[in-house]
Amino acid sequence: MPEHKIFSLGDFPLECGLVLRKAQLAYQVYGELNSRKDNAILLCSWYSGDHTGYEFLIREGKCFDPTKYCVIGVNMFTNGLSSSPSTTPIPMNGPHFPATTIRDNVRAQHALVQSLGIESLALVSGYSMGAQQCFQWAVSYPDMVERIAPWCGAARTTPHTHVFIEGFTSALRADAAWNHGHYAQPPATGVRAMARVYAGWGLSQAWYREELFKQLGHPSVEDFLVYFWEHFFLLCDANNLLAQAKTWQDHNVGDSPGFDGDWRKALATISAKAMVMPGQTDLYFPPEDSQAETDCMPNAVYRPIPSIWGHLAGIGMNPEDNDFIDAAVRECLAS
Amino acid sequence: MPEHKIFSLGDFPLECGLVLRKAQLAYQVYGELNSRKDNAILLCSWYSGDHTGYEFLIREGKCFDPTKYCVIGVNMFTNGLSSSPSTTPIPMNGPHFPATTIRDNVRAQHALVQSLGIESLALVSGYSMGAQQCFQWAVSYPDMVERIAPWCGAARTTPHTHVFIEGFTSALRADAAWNHGHYAQPPATGVRAMARVYAGWGLSQAWYREELFKQLGHPSVEDFLVYFWEHFFLLCDANNLLAQAKTWQDHNVGDSPGFDGDWRKALATISAKAMVMPGQTDLYFPPEDSQAETDCMPNAVYRPIPSIWGHLAGIGMNPEDNDFIDAAVRECLAS
Q1: A112 plus A165 within the same structural domain
Q2: Where would you tag: which of A163, A184, B6, B124 has the fewest CB atoms within 10 A of its CB?
Q3: Are A126 and A265 contained in the same domain?
């Protein structure tokens, strides 16, 4: 795959009131736009992930088939590729990077999509925080979004998910080396603690009970904690992790203009066909929340992923879950 | 209630190979032993709790009725009342306090019970880590335990519970002020982080969804995090918290002599009548684990607590859950 592309947003006003100068979205395009310009799919990145995370489904014969679709994988602000604490120069560098919302991201993505000559999206899809962006797209740009296929995510951050995020971010911030974001060396102790907290939430009790970490090549829980979780988060920048967690924590689709914070009202306006796929054993985006959200949407199918892989059912690691998502997305695209 | 009593164990050898000098168990007795000496109930303390935690059920007309039973509330090592890092002089003070196991606790409690002239226990009961002690009592002293009534706990620490404990203890340890246990001032930042991690696990997603923190007088999640969770753990000593977490993390009833680590084999030997009450929505002692354990026990009833209070269904805060436990324990005592 070639390097990702950069879309320059120029001076980009944010919901928080600050202007992000020389704002950038990193993205990648797989496949080509057809002459009718009706084969575009937008994929929105997940927490601490990037556009490459979806490549397990961007293959010929899979739902995001690049020989049929023009697939645009876009990166959220704060993920280290699009404008982020780690990439932004003074005075908005590091801990001074302004708060970016899911709606800021979606508005920036809208500008990107327009710049590509696309006026209609056959599908907006994504996992986890990517799912949050799907719902927001359908609310913010109803005339432009034909379908959404969000999985393992929700349209708003519930009180429990808020507390979950508060837990793992507090673990990172407990490290004095973090120094309120003014670190010279990465606050590795805090990042490792965050990773250990995250590990309990990422996969279900049943997954651990059946010791599926052994399937992944980890002979023990401790090996899984160090070589999977700590390793992954140690590759991330701490300010990026905290900024993106804040984006997540603060999201509510109901805060879109005209809904007075009511996510049900906002979801009721979604005319796009939707395939909503929570993970059956997801501990921080539990299926009950997706069910309640789907019930508000006039054109939506509720299709839980029958898996014990918890939240990670959606991340591309378990072939059966991948096949389930692939089939459901294809069904949505065919509708 | 009068002050608690102290039972001196003398020099008490531990499973880890060290000897705890002048070991002490703190306990309280409610009610009196009858002439047949067949009305004794032992209550084992929970993580970061003490004997007073059970007083919501130690009342006339309740299951632990002190007018009918001789109720002994005993404190685990490391809880700050029995021998603990915070109470032990050099050279086994603070971080030098030796590892104590659930079996060490049960053996110490056995000595206490014998010293009180009790040769048979009508019931051993307890919540959470208290439940771990119930199962261990029934395995270690089968001729002495007529009944057990463990709730919101398990006979062994599963891989997922291990990871959960690893998460919240890592958050505490991420604070450099902890200094491997050699602190002059409490590592408050780490303890607060631990509290925030714990908050997500203690109650169910549904509990937060329905905003039941408001029932407890907290107008917001943040108020609940600070005034309930941080406040509670800030009153504890960090070394005590970590030592008791280690006791929890390492427990497996199958490590009792003769079972080669097999908890199923150990549970199969339990002749006591048992009333096993997991919380239906407990996130770190999920009911499936209790069901699997109960299935191994020849004389056990599986009776999940139908509550959205998660693990805290068992802690005495929700009147409906209290009544459920009370009724089930009374049923067990009547059998």
Answers
A1: no
A2: A184
A3: yes
Among the three residues A223, A245, A267, which one is the final residue of a domain in this structure? A245
Instruction: Tell me B145's DSSP state.
Output: B
Which pLDDT value is given to residue A93? Answer: 97
Does A225 lie at the interface with B, CB-CB under 8 angstroms?
Answer: yes
Are the C-beta atoms of A50 and A78 separated by less than 8 Å? no
- Phi then psi for residue B21, to 5 deg, are -75, 145
Nearest CA to A94 among A168, A186, A174? A186
The last residue of a domain, from among B245, B264, B299: B245
Residues B147 and B259 in one domain: yes
Mean pLDDT of the residues in chain B: 97
B209: distance to nearest CA of chain A, Å? 6
Give the pLDDT of residue B57: 98
Are B82 and B37 contained in the same domain?
A: yes
How many domains does chain B fold into? 2
Whether A282 is catalytic: yes
Q: Domain with A30 in it: what CATH number?
A: 3.40.50.1820
Establish if B180 touches chain A: CB-CB under 8 angstroms: no
**Residue B24 tokens, joined:** 């002490």
C-alpha pair distances (Å), A125 with each of A47, A59, A153, B211: 14, 15, 11, 30
At B269 the three-state DSSP class reads coil
Please, what sign has the CA dihedral across residues B94, B99, B105, B107?
negative
**Which of B225, B239, B244, B230 has the alpha carbon at shortest distance from B188?**
B230
Please state the rounded mean pLDDT for residues B2-14. 93
Instruction: State the alpha helices, DSSP H only, in chain A.
Output: 102-115, 129-140, 159-173, 188-202, 205-209, 221-224, 231-234, 238-249, 263-268, 287-296, 319-334
Q: Whole domain around residue A194: which residue ranges?
A: 161-245
Say yes or no: A265 and A219 in one domain.
no
**Predicted local distance difference test score (pLDDT) of residue A281:** 98
CATH number at residue B191: 1.10.1740
Give the Cα separation of A153 and A113 in Å (integer). Answer: 23
Q: Does B264 touch chain A (CB under 8 A)?
A: no
| Rounded percentage of chain A residues whose pLDDT exceeds 70 | 99
B170 carries an active-site annotation: no
B121–chain A nearest CA distance, Å? 33
Residues B76 and B185 in one domain: no
The segments of chain A whose pLDDT lies below 70 read 1-2
Task: Give the DSSP H/E element, type plus range, for residue B73.
Answer: strand B70-74
| Lookup: tokens for B40 | 């004794």
Residue B270 in this model has a pLDDT that exceeds 70: yes
Residue B196 sits in the same domain as residue B209: yes
Are B166 and B174 in contact by the 8 Å Cβ rule? The answer is: no
| Cβ pair B50, B79 in contact under 8 A | yes
Q: Which residues contact A205 (CB under 8 A, 6 or more apart)?
A: A281, B158, B160, B283, B284, B286, B288, B289
Residues B169-174, mean pLDDT to the nearest whole number: 98
Judge whether A182 counts as a catalytic residue: no
Q: For chain B, what percent of residues have pLDDT higher than 90?
A: 99
Q: Is B162 part of the contact surface with chain A (CB cutoff 8 Å)?
A: yes
pLDDT over 90 (residue B1): no
Same domain, A126 and A193: no
pTM recorded for the entire structure = 0.94
Structure confidence at residue B2 (pLDDT): 57
**Among candidates A137, A147, A151, A150, which has minimal Cα distance to A332?**
A147
In angstroms, the CA B203 to CA B254 distance is 29
